[in-house]
Prior knowledge:
This protein has helices at residues 2-14, 16-22, 39-54, 66-75, 91-115, 159-167, 190-200, 228-236, 244-256, 272-277; strands at 26-31, 58-63, 82-83, 86-87, 119-123, 131-139, 145-157, 170-174, 177-179, 185-188, 205-210, 225-226, 261-266, 285-287. By secondary structure, it is α/β, with parallel strands linked by helices. The radius of gyration is 19 Å and the shape is globular.
Amino acid sequence: MFNKLIKRANIVIEALPYLQEFHGKVIVIKYGGSAMHDPELKDIVLRNVVFLKLVGMHPVIVHGGGPDISRALKRKKIKTEFIQGLRVTTKDIMKVVESVLGKKINQQIVSLIKKNGGKAKGFYGKKGRVIKAKKQWVKDEEGKYVDLGFTGHVAGIRYRFLQKWMKKGYIPVLSPIGVGRRGKTYNINADSAAAKVATFLKAAKLILLTDVRGVQGKDGKLLSKINTYKTRKLIKQGVISGGMIPKVKCGLYAIRNGVEKVHIIDGQIPHALLLELFTDRGIGTMVVR
Ligand SMILES: Nc1ncnc2c1ncn2[C@@H]1O[C@H](COP(=O)(O)OP(=O)(O)OP(=O)(O)O)[C@@H](O)[C@H]1O
Ligand SMILES: [Mg+2]
């Protein structure tokens, strides 16, 4: 009878070196919209986050919501277009983005954290003004600038403000909506918002939770590591496409700017966060220089 309990105690104590390593460290978690569709799983993800906070880490959540936004736009019969994995954001689309990300998803995450016994504070756009934004331009194949409307990039993060909340025991939950000049709000790719938050907070880890095991190579197999050279090659070959382009690029940005470790993992695996943080091998793809 005791054997079973001893086994369980052993599992708990195996986490000790990892708890020591990450105690007091900032862990930024990008919670991708693609990994949010199952309510039970969502609950497990946020229970994991509450656990991390309780054992002395400082988790920060930046969430996405691509699929929910696309569904809401479809219902409203508003066409949507992506250029280089980034959504072109018209005025109408921005309204939907603010309501889906800011009102719906952000509040859902905050209440799930509270339900699991944690303290959470939601920030989006003008609420907290955590993310300062500027309009984003991208270049097409001929080098011409393309207008993406209200799509923005991060110009700054009010990280001291976040740290204040974190020290008080709160888990910040950020929607990737930034505020620019004259109070204009911008839709930001959640991966790039998360990477910037991680660099400003000098995070020990940036974990990008998505709906695939990690980055897949040409043969469809999972790549356990990816670097700048390989990323360029795979994007050129079209092997890395869509939403995986900003994700890998942001991972590389974070690793070059002081974030110690970046991992792209499958948020659909139950307890993916604990598996990533409390095992030697980890899961998914690690982004290295
Ligand atoms: N080489 C690749 N390896 C793995 N996934 C890839 C690859 N190339 C493209 N993808 C696509 O990238 C997707 C993940 O990016 P996506 O933007 O859709 O999700 P997310 O970032 O987790 O969610 P959200 O954008 O809502 O925050 C995968 O579902 C997959 O279809
Ligand atoms: Mg994405």
